[in-house]
Amino acid sequence: MSLKEQTLKGLRWSFIDSFSVQAITFIVGVILARMIEPAEFGLLGYTYFFVAILSFMVDGGFEAAIIRKKDCTAADYNTSFFFNLGMGVVLYALLFLTAPFISGFFEEPRLTAILRTVGLMLIICSVGNTPNVRLSKKMDFKTKAIISIGSSISAGVIAIVMAFHEWGVWCLVWRMVLGAIFSSATVWLFSDWRPAVEFSRKSFKELFSFGYKVFLSDFVSIIYSNIYYPVIGKFFSATILGFYTRAENFSTLISNTLSINVQRVAYPSLATIQDNIEQLKWNYRKLAKSIMLITFSCMLGMAAVAQPLISILIGDKWLPCVPFLQLMCGSAMFMPLHHMIRDLLVIRGHPEIYLRLEIISKSLSVPLIVIGIFWGIEAMLIGKILMSVLVFFMDAHYASQMVSYTVREQLSDIAPLLLVPLCVSLTVWGITFLHWNNWLTIIVQFLTGCVLTAVCYEFFKHPNYLEMKEIFMNMAKKLKNE
Q: Is 394 in contact with 357 (CB distance < 8 Å)?
C-alpha cells in the first residue's frame, strides 16, 4: 500500500473515530445540559486544569518518540509501559494529597472528592497508553475507532441514567472515569502485545532524550489551553465557568476533531518521508489547504448559527454562552494548522524550536488573563483571536525554514480559503436578525449556507474543494462496500 493510500485509509478511519466520538459526546452533553444546571458543569470545570496537566505528564513525550523511531524494540515498549504506569501512580497520589488544598483555594468543598475520583483516570489511562501507541504506529485506526466509539457510548449511556436519578455533577465525573476504564480495558482485548518485566536504561535514555523536548513544548500548550478554567472559576463564579466550558465544548467540536485526526495520521505518515524535503513539503502543503478549507467553513458557520443552535439544543438557560462561543470559533480556526506546523518541526528533528515557539506564544496568554480579570471574558476572547493570527505568522516563519515553504506561499495558499466561508457566514448570521422562530431560523441558515458554499466553489472550480469532494465521495463508497 502506497503512502497516499495508507494516509487516506488512516484519515478515513480516524475521522470516523473522532467524528463519531465527538457526535456521541455532543449528543450526551446536550442531554445532560438540559438536565443539569450550568453551575454543576462549572464545578467539574475546576478540575480540567489539574487533570489535563497530570494526564499529560503520565506520557512524558514517549508517544511522540516511539512513533518517530523507525525500529522500536520490545525493550522500548516495555520501558514506556512501566514509565507510564509509575508516573500514573505517583501523580494520582500527588493529586489525592493536594485535593483539599485545591478545594480550599476555590472555596468549593465538594472539589476534594471530585478531584480524587476524576484523578483515577491517571492510573487507568497509563495502563492503556502503550497499546494505544502501538496501534497508532501501525496506523491501525480502524481498531482505535471501534474502541473509542464503544467506550463513549457505554460511558454516555450510564451518565444519562445517573442524571435521571439526579446525581448532579457526579454524572459528569463518572462519565469521564468510566470512559477511561472502558477504553483501557478494550484496547488490551484488541492488542496482541503484552509487556515483559523489563526497564531498559538505554531505551529510556533514547526515548526521553527526544521525547522530553516534545513533552516540554506540549506541556506549555496544555497549561495555556487550560489555565482559563481556574482563573474564571476563581475570579468569576462556577456558573460563568459553566457557560465558558459549554461554549468551548461547542467551539472545539470541529477544530479539535480536525487537529486530533491530522496529528494521528499526518505525523506518522509524514515521519516516513522526513528526509525527502520536496515530497514532505508537497504532502504537507496539500494536506494543510484541504484541512483549512474545512476548518474555516465549519468554524465560521458555527459562529453564524450560535444563537438558535444553543437555544434549540440545550435551552435558553444557556444563552449567555452564545457570545463566548462566537468569539471562540474565531480563535479556534487556526488550531489545526498550528498543530500541523508544530508537528512538522518535530518530524524534521527540531523539537527545541517547537519548545521555543510554545514558550513565546503561550507567554502571550498572561496579558490575556489580566484583560479577562479586569475587562471581562469577551475582551479576553477577542485578544485570543488576535493572538492566534500572530502565532500563525510565527509558526509560518519556521515552517518556511524546515521545508522551504515561504510565508508568502503559505499566505497565498491559506488566505483565499477564508474568503468564501467569511462571506457565506456573514450572510447566514444576518438571518438571525429576522427574529423568526429558532427552528425556522436555523433551517434557513443551514440550507442557505450549504447552497451558497457549494455554488461559490463549483462556480469558481476551486481545486481544493473539488479534490476534497472527490476524496469524501470515494471514502463514502469504500465505507459502504466495507
A: yes
Which of 263, 262, 255, 258 lies closest to 299 in space, CA to CA? 255
- Round the average pLDDT of the chain to a whole number and report it: 82
Burial track 366-388 (b if 16+ CB lie within 10 A, e otherwise): eebbebbeeeebeebbbbbbebb
Is the distance from CB of 51 to CB of 114 less than 8 angstroms?
Answer: no
C-alpha dist (Å) from residue 432 to 229, 289, 376, 435: 30, 30, 25, 6
- Pair 267, 345: CB distance under 8 Å: no
pLDDT in tens, 14-60: 667 777 887 888 889 889 988 888 889 888 888 888 888 888 888 77
List pLDDT tens digits, range 372-419. 888 888 888 888 888 888 888 888 887 777 777 788 888 888 888 888
User: Cα Rg for the chain, rounded, in angstroms?
Assistant: 22
The per-residue pLDDT for 332 is: 85
Judge contact between 137 and 72, C-beta under 8 A.
Answer: yes
Name the residue type at position 281: K
What pLDDT was estimated at residue 229?
Answer: 86
Query: Whole-angstrom Cα distance, residue 204 to residue 202?
Result: 5
Confidence of residue 95 (pLDDT cuts 50, 70, 90): very high
Is the Cα torsion angle 460, 462, 466, 472 positive or negative in sign? negative
Q: Which residues contact 284 (CB under 8 A, 6 or more apart)?
A: 266, 270, 340, 344, 403, 405
